[in-house]
Amino acid sequence: MIETRVIRLHKTGGPEVLVEETIPLDLPGPGEVIVRNTAIGLNFIDTYFRSGLYPAALPFIPGNEGAGIVDQVGAEVTHLKPGDRVAYLSAGAYASHTKVVASSVVKLPDSIAYDQAAAVLLKGLTAWMLLFEVRRARPGETALVWAAAGGVGSLLVPWARSLGVRVIAVVSTEEKAARVRANGAEDVLLSHEDIPARVHELTAGRGVDVSYDSVGKDSADASLAALRPRGWFVTYGNASGPVAPIAPARLSMGGSLNMTRPTLFSFISTPQEMAAGTAALFGALQVGTLKADIGHRVPLAKVAEAHKAIEARQTMGSTVLIP
To answer: The dihedral of CA 207, 208, 213, 215: what is its sign?
Structure first.
């Protein structure tokens, strides 16, 4: 048994419920490893568990991705050994040491640093899911990307552009607009504008083929109104709250629209799927299609401040927590 320093919550609520503690960590069992974290990714989904929007058994350690060094290996683990550089997707990442099921751990190429991996693994796999698995993005299509300066958006925009997709990005400030233009977006709109009207203006009245919407409640109607007939509303986040129920007739009235609410873990539920996704992501990083856009590095002990910033939409790119 070892001790691990964690950020844990005993009740749901605002950022103030995140408490730093030191707790014992059992040795890894069969098929498990312990990773000594050197970098931890902050994702908007972490705030959903903290607030209670997504239920979790309490007490609860947030965090869904990290990177570091394998510290200990349990029985039946054959593809990892102590000292390996790795990244993983697993609950409980807000910690100095995390016990992880070995099948959710991937080795890092030497060219990818720990903080890069922690910044992009979950977000990059989400972008891969959206572009390749939910529906295959095609050259010549036009995509509306909400929160385009955020963690997923900053990866989704250049990856979509590399596939020949025209990107119309939506951001909240002029500062973010400049960042997104530099990232490859052809057109950038501010969220206070009439987004459907501007989209139809930019597309000669046609509308976009797909709207990648992580904002949720505040943007759902605009996403639907911006689509072309038979377009796709891909709602994959709740930054402004959950999307209100949408009647099937609304999709019909918009021109036989398609709507889906994907979650990443449905697309990486097997080691083979995880390997396919990480191979695509690491390959895109290595050839320069994607870059780990780390906007903020925050000590793990100050994670409450990072939660406040991400909820206030004050961040750009990814935020990495340093144990």
So the answer is: negative
CA dist 80 → 25, 31, 181 (Å): 20, 10, 41
Question: CA-CA-CA-CA torsion for 204, 209, 215, 220, nearest 10 degrees?
Answer: 80
Q: Answer yes or no: are the C-beta atoms of 13 and 51 closer than 8 Å.
A: yes
Contacts of 129 (CB under 8 A, 6+ apart): 262, 264, 267, 268, 277
Q: Which residues pair with 208 in a beta bridge?
A: 227
Q: What is the pLDDT of residues 194-213, one digit of tens each?
A: 999 999 999 999 999 999 99
Q: What whole-number distance in Å separates Cα of residue 155 and Cα of residue 204? A: 27
Identify the three-state secondary structure at position 29. Answer: coil
Q: How many CB atoms lie within 10 A of CB 247?
A: 8
Alpha carbon 306 to its chain's center: 15
Max Cα separation, the chain?
64
What are the pLDDT digits (tens) for 108-165? 999 999 999 999 999 999 999 999 999 999 999 999 999 999 889 999 999 999 999 9
